[in-house]
Structure to design on (608 residues):
């Protein structure tokens, strides 16, 4: 029997990335459900896992002074609340890849229920904050999972 | 000389609410600038201050089981990064008031520079999560500061 | 091949609970390493997982108005920093069980390196904030994993 | 009439620094009161304000690669909960100054009630994470507000 806990980690189901989170105390507020800003933390964990699986080593790029991804814009819809201990799956997929940015859609689901959706664009930025072309290898990596916009 | 620190608090300049925040360690991430989700915390502090000045006692409404405001949707643009110790002003104004929701625009500014903008709708929801008409007195309070959409 | 992502979850290795976290952007600050308060969020996730495995349904207890656990005191030592993408294991064990409180030790490890340690006491509190005896069944559940204080 | 909101800011009352925070949604969890880790964020804001008033420019030191302060250890006691909209004052004072570290006490108060106390040591660390002597000018600055440990 294994005595190693699973590190958090998602997987690709075709072009769609799936990542599981559980709702903890830290995620809730006094209304009893997940605080609206915390979905952004979940979505970002899922995107970091996408990078990890695509072998995009963002930490090395930051340490080398090459640059990092930053959210450029984001449209959110809050449809249903998430409660303590809920098991949530974050679905993420890429719908457009440009020289310096990637467009993604993300959904937070509890079973079949969509709780929150995000449509966003992340841009690659140099340490001075200016947009920069992302490394070509990374562009190619994103292209392996590029797909069309889907209904939920 | 006063030995009481100012509690954080904003004010209305006509229909526009102004609220000051400073960038602390907790707000930044390893890229050296404010983590994108943390603007949502700043915007929410400013909206709470709007309620306070309009005499909308949300804590009493929650404790009485009447309901609470929740973000229904939100569109964000990230234009420039905010750095440690920056003094930021959040501008907030209401552009539409319905029976069960209020539409607002919020901008985070450093001096004249717009760092981040949000356009959002908050809905009043019953404790069971369903939309509910907001108290008429609160509707009236919001109407005293209703204004048109502005360019930044 | 499974297309379901693992939900985060720990396990007991004897009386010691192990729970894995990964360091994400949200956890870091501009110094490039994990913000000190965020270890408390990781430790709390691990404690929630302890409750889950011991079949202590805290959400039901909150919704029934019985009470909830709250941290009463905590002593922290920060030994080494945690960096983006690090795989961290949280070790948790119970060293004392009283009528209304439980004492625990928690360590955050990266491989063999201890990054942060916490010694803490959680108390069961009624909805009005007063200490309350924890349900006897829960006391018994904690006793199944009671152990002595260990060196790291 | 001023149309500029006050930026958050504290003041020294003799050697004791006072800093005001208000409890917002983001600070609470589903138990209805402030999430335990969030006191650390408030304490850190107050310490940042201490540095600001003592003319210790930590951002410049980080950007110059000199180093930064990091929490080395911390002992917390949670005495009473803080609720939404509560006005809290953080009292901070320095009780010991060494070559590479400073010891501080911090209390969160609501009126006369002590909600949470912290006793902590911050260490100056080089970018590689190793302890480093703090700049002598900064040592001197801290010494201007050095005081003895007080009862609450």
């Amino acid at each position: 029997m294994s005595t190693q806990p699973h590190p958090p980690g998602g997987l690709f189901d075709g072009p769609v990335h799936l990542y599981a989170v559980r709702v903890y105390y830290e995620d809730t507020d006094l209304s009893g459900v997940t605080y609206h800003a915390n979905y952004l933390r979940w979505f970002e964990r899922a995107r970091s896992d996408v990078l990890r699986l695509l072998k995009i080593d963002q930490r090395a790029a930051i340490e080398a002074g090459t640059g990092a991804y930053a959210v450029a814009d984001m449209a959110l819809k809050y449809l249903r609340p998430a409660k303590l201990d809920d098991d949530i799956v974050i679905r993420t997929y890429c719908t457009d890849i440009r020289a310096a940015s990637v467009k993604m859609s993300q959904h937070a689901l509890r079973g079949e229920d969509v709780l929150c959706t995000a449509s966003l664009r992340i841009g690659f930025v140099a340490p001075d904050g200016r947009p920069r072309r992302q490394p070509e290898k990374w562009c190619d990596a994103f292209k392996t999972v590029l797909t069309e916009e889907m209904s939920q």
Summary: The interface with chain C takes residues 25-26, 28-33, 35, 37, 84 of chain B (CB under 8 Å). The radius of gyration of chain B is 16 Å.
